[in-house]
Design goal:
- This protein has an 8-stranded mixed β-sheet. A 5-stranded mixed β-sheet has the order 13-12-14-15-16, with helices on both faces. It has a 3-stranded antiparallel β-sheet with strand order 2-4-3.
- It is built from 16 helices and 16 strands.
- By secondary structure, the protein is α+β, with helices and mostly antiparallel strands.
- It binds histidyl-adenosine monophosphate (HAM).
- The site of histidyl-adenosine monophosphate has 27 residues, from β6, β10, β11 and α11.
Length: 421
């Protein structure tokens, strides 16, 4: 038997309605905040990610699916969406009209990570980016949008973590101090951290290895080294969040795994998720557009993990989101079966979701089947009723049954909207 590749999975019909729910709600909420969708390719030239995300990040060093095509070009399955979006923003001169562009994208991303619950090699993100403004108000607006989305989806037990990782003006001085302190405690750090001291000392701060925690906790905090503009930006973000009534936790250790960030970084974690508890993450990337060949442009955004959003949906939402047909047709006999097909086609054109299966079932079996699906109403058509142009309409909620001329079925169904279970 051929099975799907480790770290990838099939999303089966049992679960897909939960995905649709998150996708639908995100699109509706993002629309309210003025975001427009953009569809981006799944693979790009490798250089885009090496330059955009950073050569010394885990993603670029160890996790990319890179291959050469038949034309010997090095291509990579996208590990994230921001670099691609910025590439498209530059390529199509989306900055041409000036002002702010609010864009979002959704789709699969690929990273060669160790698979576990909530962490896959093909996973799905929905991301949104604001290109143009420098304001912390935009950051708070985006975070507010996420709060509303999680609220609409019933996702609770979450925490918002914020940090500032400075800018090219203040970060080098911090990095020098940090590197020195890391070297002094290298004996208490894991091999990965020791390697990072030289190449990416900031990443030591968010090492998850329990053996490193004591040493890492004793390292200096970047918040103590911010320059005046970064400090003021950070304070203003906190003020905006306060005005919106959004609770946050400051976490100076949260530096995130992508090199393009400056100033604000943020993450939202969920208590419902276990080890891979980051529901979403993002931050500001003011230099990225320029670095990839575009005009100097401020950028801020996030990506949410769709797989993890689905995992974090509460039971009540899971149970209530499965689509249920409005009516089940139960034809008993061959003539009735043929007539039922015509009735089903008519009802579907009138907007009803109708289930009809073409197996020869007894009435009891039809009712059991309808009950299992949670369908509220069943239209029973026997051969005799078919001859008379009638059907019995049975409510599975009240148990009531009435005889309805088929010509009036649509109107009666409309008049008596049945609550689905
Ligand atoms: P990221 O933190 O690498 O950021 O990913 C964002 C989210 O994608 C994570 O919080 C998590 O929910 C989900 N995710 C990441 N890796 C996996 C995985 N292997 N399996 C399942 N879910 C995963 C970015 O990708 C940035 N592009 C976010 C951003 C946009 N920053 C600014 N704009």
């Amino acid at each position: 038997m051929i099975t799907c590749v480790r770290g990838t999975r099939d999303i089966l019909p049992d679960e897909i309605h939960l995905w649709h729910l998150v996708e639908r709600e995100s699109a509706a909420i993002f629309d309210r905040y003025g975001f427009e969708e953009l569809r981006l390719p799944i693979f790009e030239v490798t250089e885009l990610f090496a330059r955009g995300i950073g050569d010394t990040t885990d993603i670029v060093e160890k996790e990319m699916y890179t291959f050469t095509d038949r034309n010997d070009q090095s291509l990579t399955l996208r590990p994230e969406g921001t670099a691609s979006l910025v590439r498209a923003y530059i390529q199509h001169q989306l900055y041409k009209d000036g002002g702010t562009r609010k864009l979002y994208y959704a789709g699969p991303m690929f990273r060669y990570e160790r698979p576990q619950k909530g962490r896959y090699r093909q996973f799905y993100q929905i991301g949104a980016e604001v290109l143009g403004p420098d304001s912390p108000g935009v950051e708070a607006e985006v975070i507010d949008m996420l709060m509303l989305l999680m609220d609409r989806l019933g996702i609770g037990d979450t925490r918002l973590w914020i940090n500032s990782i400075g800018c090219p003006a203040c970060r080098p001085a911090f990095l020098a101090v940090l590197q020195e302190r890391e070297q002094a405690t290298a004996g208490r750090l894991c091999a990965d951290c020791v390697r990072r001291i030289a190449v990416n000392p900031l990443r030591v701060l968010d090492c998850k290895n329990p053996d490193c925690q004591d040493a890492v906790n004793a390292l200096p905090s970047i918040l103590d080294y911010l320059c005046a503009p970064c400090r003021s930006h950070h304070e203003r973000l906190k003020k905006h969040l306060g005005l919106l009534g959004i609770a946050y936790h400051e976490n100076p250790r949260m530096v995130r795994g992508l090199d393009y960030y400056v100033k604000t970084t943020f993450e939202i974690t969920s208590g419902a998720l276990g080890a891979q508890n980051s529901l979403l993450g993002g931050g500001r990337y003011d230099g990225l557009v320029e670095q990839l060949g575009g005009p100097p442009t401020h950028g801020f955004g996030f990506a949410l993990g769709l797989d993890r959003f689905v995992l974090a949906l509460p039971e009540a939402v899971r149970a209530g989101s499965r689509p249920v047909p409005d009516v089940h047709l139960a034809p008993l006999g061959e003539t009735a079966q043929e007539l039922a097909q015509v009735v089903a086609a008519r009802l579907r054109r009138a907007g009803f979701a109708v289930s009809q299966d073409f197996q020869d079932r007894s009435l009891k079996s039809h009712l059991r089947h309808a009950n299992r699906m949670g369908v509220p109403r069943v239209v029973i058509i026997g051969d005799a009723e078919a001859e008379a142009g009638q059907a019995a309409l049975k409510s599975l909620i009240t148990g009531d049954q009435i005889l309805v001329p088929l010509t009036e079925l649509e109107a009666v169904l409309r008049q008596q909207p049945a609550e689905k279970e």
